[in-house]
Amino acid sequence: MADAPVVAVRGEAYREVAPELARFTVTAVARDRDRETTLTRLAERAAAVRALLDAAGPTVERRETGQVRVWPVTKRSGERVVAYQGSVSTTVTVTDFTALGELMLRLADQEQVEVAGPVWSLRPDSPAHREARHAAIADALVRAREYAEALGARVTALRELADTGLTAAPPMLAKAAFARSGDSAPELELDPAPQPVQAAVEARFTISEPVLD
């Protein structure tokens, strides 16, 4: 009925779920007074990084070369070049967290290589997003029924439903711990950061005639 009473509510859901992806950046750098030497060293170090990532096999789900930079270093007082510097950055995506720490350490053990991360996240199509949306709708229905019950009425139909947004956590860095015992290889323990997922909807329900005694 067009003139039936309406109750408007907001449904919300909040979940913390385990991350599905870990991303880190590995950067090979080189510097020398001679330009050709800098370029040669940079290419060699970038190739060593690629070889390690190739050897990691299915542990690495995806890798992307981000930025390649080569620039002259000049004196502050003028334009005289005193050296050449270069860097190659690669973003690596991993889903096997059990092998993540070992892979990062192997890369960090290379000459003139910097490793930064990991950043934990969910996949864009993660089931966690769908579950949060469903939970937000269920919350809206519960609230509508509670309001209707307080009026001595009942929910009869859904009139309108609007998605007010779904958000995930901002990128979070890992908690890392290094451990070395005697001559054994170093170990890197990582604690994956739980990923908050939120969803909210606004809904309008028609209700039966309230009992206002």
From TrEMBL:
Coiled coil: none annotated. One of its GO terms (biological process) is DNA damage response. InterPro entries: 26kDa_periplasmic_antigen, SIMPL/DUF541. It holds the Pfam family SIMPL. This is SIMPL domain-containing protein. The lineage of its organism: Bacteria, Bacillati, Actinomycetota, Actinomycetes, Micromonosporales.
